[in-house]
Amino acid sequence: MNNKFQTKSPRFKSIEERGEPTFKTKSDKNSHRNTRNTQEKREKRNDEFRRNERRNDRNDDRKSKLGGSIAPNYDIYPTEGKRASGEGSVKISVKGGSRSTEKKTGPLSPRAPEKIRNNRATEMKVYGENACHTLFQQRPDAIIRLWATVEGAKKAGELLSYLAEQKKAYHVVDSEEMERVTGTEHHGGICLLVKKSTPFSLEGYLQIPRQRDCLVLLDGVNNAQNVGGIMRTCAFYGVKGIIVEQNDILNSSNAARVAEGGLEFVHPLETKHKQIALAQLRNAGYQIVHLTRQKQAQVLSKTALNEKIVFVLSEVVANDVEYPEDTNVQLSFANPLNSGLNVAVNTGILLAQWYQSHIL
Fold this sequence. Notes:
Blueprint: H1 15-18, H2 26-66, E1 80-82, E2 89-91, H3 114-122, E3 123-127, H4 129-138, E4 143-148, H5 150-154, H6 157-165, E5 170-172, H7 175-182, E6 190-195, E7 200-201, H8 202-206, E8 213-218, H9 224-236, E9 241-244, H10 253-259, E10 267-270, H11 274-283, E11 287-291, E12 298-299, E13 308-313, E14 327-330, H12 343-358
Parallel strand pairs: 4-5, 7-10, 8-9, 8-13, 9-10, 11-13, 11-14, 12-14
Antiparallel strand pairs: 1-2, 3-6, 4-6
Helix pairs in contact: 9-10, 9-12
């Protein structure tokens, strides 16, 4: 056998054993750099994860204290944007950000914001085609917002153009939404949120002397349908003032609809009490006319009516003469009914008699 392969040859030593310096290739350097970047990214992700955990813990604590979930803040989003044409603006709503559609009614809490109380005291809704279009013609600056159905919007092109020019909000809605806005199905396809007209006091009104004047005093008339009919009749005959104890009697949405625009041509003259108003009117030289069902009272057609006159109107006509110092008249001797005419109808008869005597 050959001894050549049986001899013990010296074993090769490794680089580490020989103690020789090592040299890193380019690929080794890149590998080391990638490893270091990966470690840094992992540390950043861990830090971000820990921050999110702490943030979630704080939110959980807030939820437990408030007793429920925290609603997202949609107020940070814009609510209005300009049209592409540059004219007018459009409303912007955030999906999922709609508030509850349940209508809240009733008296305001003492803790309600002062702005809400002021708005309720100075603003009102007017609906009905004639009422809204007449208001637009007489007081366009008072309009704050508009709602209209598709049919109503087609008839209100000029009004919508004005609102777009003035950058005021308007909404085209369906009939169901319009009923929720107005609270009635008799909305006429259009509704306006407007500022109430400036009220006047009877005392201040009487300080200006007038040679010819006709006024109406409402005595316990609170039905909105009747009030609306009276305002419409007064506007028809050119009567400018209605004496009331509260201005809101005339500033009623339902009354404004029935008045068919008459609210824009008559002014509420506020008084503290009916007796105070009667005394002030007598001192100012007004003839005061009351209706009565007493058969001995003079008939209206044979009564001389002065140029300065006030008609006192009530939903229930008295059977007796309550104010003998004033003028008391009756409308019919042949009335077989236990009640008389509607107060709005009485208004029309009285004003027509005075109008024929002093205007025609």
